[in-house]
Amino acid sequence: MGLIKFISQLIIMAYQSFEELEVWKKARELKIEILQLVKTFPPEERFNLTDQLKRSSRSVPSQIAEGHGRRTFPDRLRFSIIARGSLAETLNHLIDASDSGYITNEQLKYFRDKVYEVERLLNGYINYLEKNIK
Fold first, then answer.
1. What is the 3-state secondary structure (H, E, C) of 23-82?
2. What is the pLDDT confidence band of residue 134, given thresholds at 50, 70 and 90?
3. For the chain, how many structural domains are there in total?
């Protein structure tokens, strides 16, 4: 990477908060909706599926924010890949909720679409980071 490009990336990174990242915003929206959804789950799931869904959905924007805070492209990439894993885990827990009868097929489809939207943005962000590492 040329010195001028490197310096310009540092300047951009210095002025952008993780809160400005579209992928973080969408991951946060998903998390908030899931926090509302799990309030409808049966009480016996409080320390099981409810807790797992809350943790995995919280992890997605948290990992993006943490990687962004590290301020290097390799760190951002590493934490974004972890976020993608948490996103897949969230979808799996939603499928479990559907299998258990806690959410309808329509709710599962709605949340699956939300997960895929975040996944598309996250994959784009990961591609951007990979190009900046090379």
1. HHHHHHHHHHHHHHHHHHCCHHHCCCHHHHHHHHHHHHHHHHHHHHHHCCHHHHHHHHHH
2. confident
3. 1
